[in-house]
Structures are given as C-alpha cells and as structure tokens.
Amino acid sequence: MTRETGEAAPGVRRRMPHARRREQLLTAATGEFGRRGYHLTQMEHVAAAAQVSKALLYQHFASKEELFAEVTESIVTDLTGRLSEAVLAQHDSGEGIRAMVRVLFDYATEEPDSWPLVIRHLDKPEDGPGLRELRELRDRLGTAFADLLLRRRRADPALSPTALAVNERRARLLVPLMYGSMLSMVSWWLEHPDTGREDAEQMAYEFIWLGLDRLRSGERMPAQDR
Predict the structure, then answer these.
(1) At 175, is the secondary structure helix, strand, or coil?
(2) For the chain, first and last CA: distance in Å?
(3) Dihedral angle over CA of 80, 81, 86, 88, nearest 10
(4) Could you tell me which residues form the DNA-binding region (predicted)?
(5) Consecutive H or E run containing 212
(6) How far is Cα 51 from Cα 147, in angstroms, rounded to an integer?
(7) Would you give the distance in Å from CA 157 to the centre of its chain?
(8) To which H or E segment does residue 11 belong?
(9) Which DSSP state fits 220?
(10) Cβ distance 1 to 12 under 8 Å?
(11) 199: left (phi over 0), alpha (psi -120 to 50) or beta
(12) Among 13, 29, 15, CA closest to 63
C-alpha cells in the first residue's frame, strides 16, 4: 500500500475482509451444493468456484459438514421468515395459500442458487448437519398448510370432536400433496420462462385450493375408482 494514496501498490493483491470473504465462500458453496448435491460436492469444488485455495477455504470452515450446515441454516432462516410473515398477514385460508405460493415463486426468482439446493435436499432421508434442518423446514411448511386448511373448521362450534379429528387426519394426508405440487410447479415454471409468472401462480393456487375445496366438502371417488 502506498503512503501517498493509501491504495495497494501495483502487483500487490489486496486481502478481502474476513466477513466479505466468508460471504463469498458461502455463495459459492450454495451454488455447488445445489448443482451437485451434498454428497457429491467436495471442498475443492467450492474452492474452485470461489477462485480460492482449498487451504483458505479450510481457514473459514473446518469441514464440508460445517460449511453445508451454515449454508442450510441461512436458507432455512430466510425462507421460514418469509413464509411466516406472509401467512400471518392473512386471515383467510385461501389467501394464506395464495401467499405461500407467492413466497415460493419470489424465493425461487430471487435466490436462484438456493432454490435447487432446497428442491434437491428437502425430502432426503439422510441425517446430518443441514439435512435435518431442511427436513424441519419441510415439516414447518406442512404444518402451515394444515393450519390453513383447518382454520375455519377449528373455529366452527358446531363441529364435533370426532368430525374435527377426521378433518385433522385428512389434512395431514393432504399436506405432502400440496407442498409437493407447489414446489414442482415453481421448478417447472423456472424451466419454462415463456409461461407468465402470474399464470403459473394462479394455476398453482387454483389446483391446490379448488381441489381441496372439493375434498373439504366431502366429495370422494367411488370405492371402485380409488
């Protein structure tokens, strides 16, 4: 660094501040874990993507497990916060579902490196740092869906405890169908940019809400067709 200008002298590489370097490494890691998956991603992949040495990467993260755990913690915190804020702002069940759809489209659009990681690992059966947190995110998403479905039912004083128990059980069965269809719809839309986002969002909402409405009203397939 020259005394006159305070800038780095020619040919001298300026060291990146610790916090900024860590953020850069986490960004690179998010992209690699999303593309390759946790098990196929190695520390050298992350180092190469960040254009640093593997030794420097290990100065910030002691292991791949620690790195993945920090990446997923950031994703889970961000997405959980967005979903909670959006759903809590809605008093109507249908609008709550619409808000969740909108949040997922927003997240996939604004966080293109994080979205593939979520899709790839959300239903993985393996345990370990980060993977457990992603499964907990899936469970929280499912709980939010079930709560929206049951909001009106739970407030109905005419509903017997037996009928409410039947509704609770049915809601739990519907949860994986709902969030699975929403995640698939968002991923499909990302691969088909010629489809307008508004149309894709509306179709996702209608598919979930209108189908659920028929189930909630008691409509069932004839026994021979089940």
Answers:
(1) helix
(2) 75
(3) 90
(4) 42-61
(5) helix 197-216
(6) 46
(7) 36
(8) none
(9) -
(10) yes
(11) alpha
(12) 29
Closest by Cα among 136, 144, 132, 201 to 171: 144
Task: Please give the Cα distance from 153 to 219 (Å, whole number).
Answer: 17
Q: What angle do CA 80, 45, 16 make, to 5 degrees?
A: 75
Q: Structure tokens of 207? A: 């598919």
Query: What six digits make up the tokens of 88?
Result: 């809590």
Give residue 5's pLDDT: 40
Q: What is the pLDDT along the chain (226 residues), one digit of tens a residue?
A: 434 443 444 443 457 788 899 999 999 999 999 999 888 999 999 999 999 999 999 999 999 999 999 999 999 899 888 988 888 777 777 888 889 899 999 999 999 999 999 888 876 655 666 777 787 787 777 777 777 766 666 666 676 777 767 677 777 777 777 778 888 899 999 999 899 999 999 888 888 777 655 555 555 556 544 4
Predicted TM-score of the model (pTM): 0.75
Helix (H) or strand (E) holding 112: none
204: number of Cβ within 10 Å: 26
Total Cβ atoms within 10 A of residue 132: 14
